[in-house]
Amino acid sequence: PKLPIHTRSSSRLLFAAKFLKQRESTGFSPAFAKQHYKMLVLGGGSGGIAMSARMKRMFGAENVAVVEPSEMHYYQPIWTLVGAGAKTVASSGRSTASVMPSGVKWVKSKVQEINPEKNTVRTDDGTEISYEYLIVALGLQLHYEKIKGLPEGFEHPNIGSNYSVQTVEKTWKALQNFKEGNAVFTFPNTPVKCPGAPQKIMYLSDAYLRKTGKRSKANLIYNTSLPVLFAIKKYADALWDVVKERDLQVNLRQNLIEVRADKREAVFENLDKPGETKVIEYEMLHVTPPMGPNSAVKGSPLGDEAGWLDLDKESLQHKRYPNVFGIGDCTNLPTPRTAAAVAAESGILNRTISKILKNEKPDKKYDGYTSCPLVTSYNTVILAEFDYTGQPLETFPINQAKERRIMYHMKADFMPHLYWHGLLRGLWGGPEPYRKLLHLGMK
Ligand SMILES: Cc1cc2nc3c(=O)[nH]c(=O)nc-3n(C[C@H](O)[C@H](O)[C@H](O)COP(=O)(O)OP(=O)(O)OC[C@H]3O[C@@H](n4cnc5c(N)ncnc54)[C@H](O)[C@@H]3O)c2cc1C
Ligand SMILES: *[C@@H]1O[C@H](CO)[C@@H](O)[C@H](O)[C@H]1NC(C)=O
Ligand SMILES: *[C@@H]1O[C@H](CO)[C@@H](O)[C@H](O)[C@H]1NC(C)=O
Ligand SMILES: *[C@@H]1O[C@H](CO)[C@@H](O)[C@H](O)[C@H]1NC(C)=O
């Protein structure tokens, strides 16, 4: 079809602009690509986008770049609710382009190598980018392949995992198709992000099976590698009450090592008696995969012995490279890895970097604040909030270990809003100021 002249030329222009942009962002054209940035951010997830918004204000958009290969950005916390059919997977994602702060350069490729001695980063297409300051926000890696029989096993029905966008909708299917038998939920023998999520899925499944009248035909079993139900005693006590009241079976120190999806069998190892394994038949299996450090960090001088980004836990500055900083799941900060922690860290890191730029010592200290809304049904949540010392650090002047409806609305409706419009725009640094305010009247 013939387009009017002006449309044709403007669409050609658009095409040319797109083409140049693409060449530039994939780094194929050194003539267009700027290969040096004052502030380079690795990873465009929760931490990377939040920091790039803040760094844009500090350095100017043209001096900031973000390396991120993914077209889509996901609000991962909502996946727990997707698995239960309470939200759709589509509602959890937006294009990376739409969350990238305007004017900040998006380098659409994968970090292959980080060389902090030379202040350079190499991407998978061979481009070398140099930097003055670096923020590492690469997240952690899922290792389904460390369980024998996975990931191929996901091709079978009755098995799902809320931890990956590819498998989350399968959990919902498995739950809907449930007839009778064992519903098994696992927790791996590694650090994980949002350590509450593996059991939230069980509580929601319980609620769903009750709602649909199938609960009496179901055995809900939570086999976890951990020696406790939850790390913080106050919340663990509350959760044990929920577990007893709902008749859920919890087995500690049990690690999933194999899935025989064709026979619907899961094999667990008893961590206290190495070599002792047990096979359990399932009608539905939810796998929380083993997780580990990001490979680009692990393979660089920036990692600690285990491969996590080696940070000072108060200033979030790298222990050996003073122009390198980090945030989020890729770090070795000794607190559970959550988006809530990322929010608190983003405010501290903003402060640390502004001090370093002025040649002053970082002064504000990260206290390890993290939070985990433990969804216990379709309308209740226990909101766990605590710090490095494992002490509850609650925002609201009420006992948050109690199951509460208001907290469910926070999790399902308010938190996503705060994520997209607050955290990602560099405007939300955690609830500390509000906590102080809300507790004032109570003291
Ligand atoms: C099921 C589930 C439930 C959760 N529930 C909650 C909750 O209730 N509350 C809460 O606070 N948190 C929750 N979380 C955790 C939260 O989502 C994460 O802690 C948070 O997103 C971490 O942010 P991040 O920036 O460190 O990592 P991510 O957001 O994962 O971002 C890392 C980014 O790095 C990119 N990347 C990786 N490798 C490379 C590379 N080589 N080169 C370039 N880019 C790369 C990735 O594509 C990704 O975009 C949950 C997570 C899951 C999965
Ligand atoms: C995901 O989480 C929901 C809510 O806990 C749970 O009911 C569902 O079974 C899970 N689904 C998947 C795909 O994991
Ligand atoms: C896992 O759960 C089953 C069922 O409750 C239990 O019998 C078993 O001891 C647990 N651990 C292992 C290793 O299977
Ligand atoms: C981040 O740092 C900049 C520069 O020091 C400062 O102006 C800004 O207020 C800081 N933002 C927050 C939320 O602390």
TrEMBL record:
The cross-references to Pfam families, in alphabetical order and at most eight, read: Pyr_redox_2
> A Gene Ontology CC term for this entry?
mitochondrion
Which superkingdom?
A: Eukaryota
What is a single molecular function from GO for this protein?
FAD binding
Catalyses which reaction?
ubiquinone-10 + hydrogen sulfide + sulfite + 2 H(+) = ubiquinol-10 + thiosulfate; ubiquinone-10 + hydrogen sulfide + glutathione + H(+) = S-sulfanylglutathione + ubiquinol-10; a quinone + hydrogen sulfide + glutathione + H(+) = S-sulfanylglutathione + a quinol
Q: Which Gene3D superfamilies match?
A: FAD/NAD(P)-binding domain (3.50.50.60)
Is Ligase there in the keyword field? no
The places in or outside the cell where this protein is found are: Mitochondrion
Could you say which cofactors this protein requires?
FAD
Q: Which UniProt keywords apply?
A: FAD, Flavoprotein, Mitochondrion, Oxidoreductase, Quinone, Transit peptide
Task: Specify the protein name.
Answer: Sulfide:quinone oxidoreductase, mitochondrial
Protein source organism: Sparus aurata (Gilthead sea bream)
Q: Which gene encodes it?
A: SQOR
